[in-house]
Write a structure and sequence with these properties.
This protein is mainly α. Helix content is about 70%, strand content about 0%. The longest helix has 15 residues.
Length: about 80
């Protein structure tokens, strides 16, 4: 659990300092499987919306931002 929280804290810091600029870069630091499980989402759906953000729902953007602990507008702007 501690490792998972540390990963999301790292992502939050990288997002806020603009070292991560795309949704895909998030998954360099935390696996798709972990994020999908934490969001209670199918991994294939997560991969689909990251690859084609036009398929992403606002609720999914807000849930991802909440999971990471960053402002929603950061994820929204990347999507």
């Amino acid at each position: 659990m501690k490792e998972k929280l540390l990963r999301y804290a790292t992502i939050k810091e990288l997002l806020e300092t603009r070292q991560i600029n795309t949704l895909e870069q998030i998954f360099d630091h935390v696996p798709y499987q972990q994020v999908a499980a934490d969001l209670k989402m199918d991994e294939s759906r997560l991969r689909q919306i990251v690859a084609d953000t036009t398929e992403m729902k606002m609720l999914e953007i807000f849930e991802l931002a909440h999971l990471i602990g960053c402002p929603e507008d950061i994820i929204l702007n990347m999507a």
